[in-house]
Amino acid sequence: MRISDILRVKGGQVVTVNPDATTERLLGVLAEHRIGAAVVSRDGVVVDGIVSERDVVRALAARGATVLTEPVSAIATTQVRTVTPDSRLEDVERLMTERRFRHVPVVVDGVLRGVVSIGDVVKNRIDELETERSELAGYITGER
Ligand code: AMP
């Protein structure tokens, strides 16, 4: 399975936030879209960073509520790991597990094309296992 298979189902829409937006604004965006991270981008095309609820929690714990009025660029990660639609799902799973992040932007020739979350990965794994289980059950009972 490739990342393109996931994007075909979930679509390529990505919630982005401007690096100059405040952390308070970011929290509004995350809550509104019910997501855990946003891609930081000035133009919605180029990935300038990624910022997740974990970054907010860490910054709040370290510096307190002042963080809320600071720009998102102050807490975002700028060295972003990205994948392409051709990337294999299992490689992305490994990347997420080893690097301990739950979101990976999908980029083609410098253009943002989607985002894959750990939720998408788990959903796909469950679907795969369910298909395999029912095929095996059919094989055992002779229905296939
Ligand atoms: P997450 O588990 O995705 O909420 O993110 C955990 C930490 O990793 C946060 O500091 C994020 O800014 C960072 N992070 C999330 N996704 C990526 C990524 N694709 N590349 C680099 N850092 C990331």
Keywords:
144 residues, alpha+beta, CBS-domain, three-stranded mixed sheet, two-stranded antiparallel ribbon, 5 strands, 45% helix, binds adenosine monophosphate, CBS_dom_sf
The molecules bound to the chains, other than polymers, are: adenosine monophosphate
Structural Rg: 18 Å
Order of helices and strands: HEHEEHHEEH
Task: Specify the CATH architecture.
Answer: Roll
CATH domain topology: CBS-domain
Explained architecture:
The protein has 144 residues and is of the alpha+beta class. The protein has a single domain (3-141), classed as Roll (CBS-domain), CATH 3.10.580.10. Helix content is 45%, strand content 16%. It is built from 5 helices and 5 strands, in the order αβαββααββα. The chain has helices at 3-10, 23-33, 53-63, 89-99, 118-141; strands spanning 16-17, 37-40, 49-52, 103-108, 111-117. The strands form 2 sheets. It has a 3-stranded mixed sheet with strand order 1-2-3. A hairpin with an 8-residue loop joins β2 and β3. The radius of gyration is 18 Å and the shape is elongated. The two termini are 24 Å apart. The mean pLDDT is 95. The protein binds adenosine monophosphate. Residues 36-37, 50-52, 54-55, 77, 80-81, 101-104 line the site of adenosine monophosphate.
